[in-house]
Design brief:
The chain contains four helices and ten strands. It has about 180 residues and is α+β, with helices and mostly antiparallel strands. It has one domain: Cyclic Phosphodiesterase, Chain: A, CATH 3.90.1140. The strands form three sheets. The protein has a four-stranded antiparallel sheet, with helices on one face.
Length: about 180
C-alpha cells in the first residue's frame, strides 16, 4: 500500500481554488490535472508500506494532540524541475507543528524521515512527460494573479492510500484524525 498523510480542503476553498485556477486550465495542453475532489495539503508522503506498519502508524497518529490549524492559500506557482503547478499554502506555526508531530509519529513507526524542508502546497497539475521547460514557462506567463482565497481552520487530517492509475492518482481515506477545537 502507498500512503501519505494530508489535510483535506473545505468545500468553499476548493470551489474558490477551482475558480482561480480555471483560467490557467483552459487552452493548455500537456498537463495532467488533479480532480478538485482530491486536492489536499500533504503533511507527509510515506510511500509503499506493509499493513502492519500502517496499523502501527495509525495508532501513533490517533495519540497526537494538536489544535485545529489555520490554513491560507497564498497563490499559484510552479515547481519548475518537477513540472508541478500548485497552490501555495502559508506556513503558519500551527501547520508546521502538526507536520512535525506527524513526521515524528511516522519515524517512531519505522518510516524514514523526510530531509527536505516542508513546503506546504496543493498539487493542481503535473506536466506530462513530453512537456518541456519552455512550454512550462509559457504556461506560467498565462497565469494572472491569484485572488485572495478564504482562510479556514483544518479540524482534521487524514491517512490516505494512493492508487496510481492511467488517468492519474486516486486516493482513498484509510483513517481520519480529529484536531482539537479551540
Amino acid at each position: 500500500m502507498r500512503l501519505f498523510v494530508g489535510i483535506p480542503l473545505n468545500a468553499e476553498v476548493r470551489a474558490e481554488l477551482a475558480s482561480a485556477s480555471t483560467p490557467a486550465i483552459s487552452g493548455v495542453d500537456g498537463w495532467q490535472w488533479a480532480m478538485a475532489e482530491s486536492w489536499h495539503i500533504t503533511l507527509l508522503f510515506l510511500g509503499n508500506t506493509s499493513h502492519e506498519k500502517c496499523e502501527f502508524l495509525s495508532a501513533q497518529l490517533r495519540d497526537l494532540q494538536c489544535p485545529a490549524v489555520p490554513i491560507q492559500i497564498d497563490g499559484l506557482d510552479f515547481f519548475e524541475r518537477a513540472g508541478i503547478f500548485y497552490a501555495g499554502v502559508s506556513l503558519f506555526p500551527e501547520l508546521l507543528a502538526l507536520q512535525r508531530k506527524v513526521s515524528d509519529a511516522a519515524t517512531q513507526s519505522g518510516f524514514t524521515p523526510e530531509t527536505r524542508p516542508y513546503h506546504p502546497h496543493i498539487t493542481l497539475a503535473r506536466a506530462k512527460d513530453g512537456v518541456r521547460r519552455p512550454a512550462r514557462r509559457t504556461f506560467r506567463k498565462t497565469l494572472g494573479e491569484c485572488p485572495k482565497l478564504s482562510p479556514f481552520r483544518a479540524e482534521e487530517f487524514l491517512l490516505f492510500e494512493s492508487f496510481l492509475e492511467p488517468g492519474g492518482a486516486r486516493y482513498e481515506i484509510r483513517e481520519r484524525f480529529e484536531l482539537t477545537r479551540t
